[in-house]
Specification:
Alpha-Beta Plaits; four-stranded antiparallel sheet; 4 helices; 25% strand
Length: 130
């Protein structure tokens, strides 16, 4: 009986957590010749800094080689507990000393991205991922 109650409590907690969860789609357009450096920065540094600031990486993508955007486009999705948490996490991320150092060092020869698009998304009630 106690095991069932604990399982039920865990499930209810999980649903409550997912209810306010928000996803963020980010699309970067890299400056010419900078896509590999941008991907390396995410691979080697940014992902760990996101984790430190409670930003869950869902995944990273690039367009298929046959797509003209494959030369300069980097895409990823983050999950945040809520929109408010996302705003708080991004503010803290932007002033993180480790991030500012990594960004400065990686952009000694110019900015890696010329454009960043961000879209916050809510899962539909029929979405398998919430």
């Amino acid at each position: 009986m106690i095991r069932r109650l604990l399982l039920l409590a865990l499930l209810v907690t999980g649903f409550a957590y997912a209810d306010g969860r928000v996803f963020e789609l980010r699309v970067y357009t890299a400056n010419e010749g900078k896509l590999e450096a941008l991907k390396a920065r995410f691979r080697d540094h940014t992902t760990a800094i996101f984790k430190k600031h409670h930003m869950e990486v869902i995944g990273y993508w690039t367009p298929e080689p046959s797509d003209p955007k494959s030369k300069d486009t980097f895409i990823y999705i983050l999950a945040h507990p809520s929109r408010e948490a996302a705003e708080k996490n991004w503010k803290e991320f932007q002033v993180d000393p480790e991030w500012t150092k990594v960004k400065t060092e990686s952009e000694k020869e110019g900015a890696l991205a010329k454009k960043v698009d961000s879209t916050f998304m809510d899962a539909t009630n029929f979405s398998p991922m919430k």
